Amino acid sequence: MRQFQLFAVVALTACGLPQSGEVSKNSSNESLIGLTVAAQGLVGGVARAPQRSNADLAQDFLNLEFKLESGRNLATLTRFEGPIKVVMTGDVPASAQGDLARLLTRLRREAGLDISQGNGLENASVVVEFVARAEMHRVVPNAACFVVPQVQTFASYKRARSSAQTDWAQVRNRKRAAVFIPSDTSAQEVRDCLHEELAQALGPLNDLYHLPDSVFNDDNFNTVLTGFDMMILRLHYAPELTNGSSKAEVAAILPQLMARVNPQGQGPMTPVKSIAPQRWVTAVETALGARATAAVRIDAANQMIDIAQSSGWTDIRSAFGYYARGRANVARDPAQAVQDFELSRRIYQSLQDTEIQVAHVDMQLAAVALASGQPARAIALADQATPAILHSENAALLATVMLIKAQALEASGHDAAARALRLDSLGLARYGFGSDQRVRARMNEISALGASGKRR
Predict the structure, then answer these.
(1) What is the arithmetic mean of pLDDT over 309-333?
(2) How many other C-beta atoms lie within 10 A of the C-beta of residue 350?
(3) Superfamily for 278-454?
(4) 285: closest CA among 343, 349, 218, 352?
(5) Lesser CB count within 10 Å: N end or C end of the chain?
(6) What is the pTM of this model?
(7) What are the start and end residues of each CATH 3.40.390.10 domain in the chain?
């Protein structure tokens, strides 16, 4: 479930929860036909393998496989048998074909899946249907995109949505699933939905807040499938496992399986990470939501920090609360926001596989520096964040950082360099934000930060 658009500078995006029985990505028109991330040089090679021990990875695998996001237990591991065919239907956006083709290539190469694009619903394993946002929200108001089992069309989902047919806990053998994505959203949102929802259609159905390098995490720092995610999918379809295996059966096989799939992961296990309780989840949703006031969001972020400290968490969750409080404080108390961001950054930087989290913090700090009349610091932070953003393939975040740097260059008297950088950012911004209107809104927002800085 993708609940937050974390590349926001000062305004936050409204998000919500999935309906029961769905696994969803919660929340704009593409104006550059055929634009792809590949055209902007953001497609990387094979993702880096996770650096954690096999004992840690095995525990994460079990927690992902045998629970739903809602906390309900799953009795058995389920997966597709035989070749997997993915079909796109509906009002397919121009960018979707290229992004799906690249995703399927990665799934074959990195996860070892027998998966390809098909034609027609008859033999489809997973149908990706593009539906107008307004139509989707009439049925599922708070979901940006979602996946459900045992249906193939949005019409059939509407008929069966309250029945056991679309309850993942009732599935014993995956034969078909459907992913629903708005047809009138940004190209990046389409791509991110394809990665997250197809991964959950194929594999685990849970999300874990302590995972630093995965789309199976509702903090949504990672937007495309990572090396960890590919390993999880490779394990999910390993020949040693069988459809319908219980948690105990899978746990008994995992040590040998992990040794085969990840022979370099023979280090010791770190302390077992507890799954975040529902009150943490609620606090996150409030702190990073757009419907609450700044005071309410700050209070929710304080709850995140308190829960993390009282639970003894030393993973990425210990940094996330400070990041959330910093965002809530940006407009209200910039000095406090900087303190929170700096603390969040220090914690993230002390942990493994957190480069993209650090880059998000640096973007926020760069925006504050720009607004406070420190263009040199804004430029340095933007440059510092760029490599990790390129690796993560996040066009919207990269465009935001480029626009912040361009505004800072202009404030420093480098007008020609600023104009060139803004021009370079346009393709990324259109891919990341969607319509020209949204691109202009982001440019105006960052321009306003620069104007604020000049007045100081």
Answers:
(1) 96
(2) 11
(3) Tetratricopeptide repeat domain (1.25.40.10)
(4) 218
(5) C
(6) 0.91
(7) 23-261
- pLDDT over threshold 80, residue 97: yes
Q: In what order do the strands lie in the sheet with 145-149?
A: 23-25, 145-149, 177-182, 126-131, 84-90, 115-117
Q: Which amino acid is at 135?
A: E
Strand 23-25 to 145-149 pairing: antiparallel
- High-pLDDT (> 70) share of the chain, %: 90
Per-residue pLDDT tens over the stretch 254-273: 999 999 999 998 877 788 78
What class is the 23-261 domain?
Answer: alpha beta
Q: Cite the residue boundaries of each domain of the chain with CATH code 1.25.40.10.
A: 278-454
What is the rounded distance in angstroms from the CA atom of residue 53 to the CA atom of residue 191?
30
Position 41 scores a pLDDT of 58
What would the 3-class secondary structure string for the chain be? Answer: CCCCCCCCCCCCCCCCCCCCCCEEECCCCCCCCCCCCHHHCCCCCCCCCCCCCHHHHHHHHHHHHCECCCCCECCECCCECCCEEEEEEECCCCCHHHHHHHHHHHHHHHHCCCEEECCCCCCCCEEEEEECHHHHHHHCCCCCEEEEECCCCHHHHHHHCCCHHHCHHHCCCECCEEEEEECCCCHHHHHHHHHHHHHHHHCCCCCCCCCCCCCCCCCCCCCCCCHHHHHHHHHHCCCCCCCCCEHHHHHHHHHHHHHHHCCCCCCCCCCCCCCCCHHHHHHHHHHCCCCCCHHHHHHHHHHHHHHHHHHCCCCCHHHHHHHHHHHHHCCCCHHHHHHHHHHHHHHHHCCCCCHHHHHHHHHHHHHHHHHCCCHHHHHHHHHHHHHHHHHHCCHHHHHHHHHHHHHHHHHCCCHHHHHHHHHHHHHHHHHHHCCHHHHHHHHHHHHHHHHHHHCC
**pLDDT digits 0-9 by tens, 139-175:** 998 788 999 999 999 999 999 998 999 999 999 999 9
Q: Which amino acid is at 419?
A: R
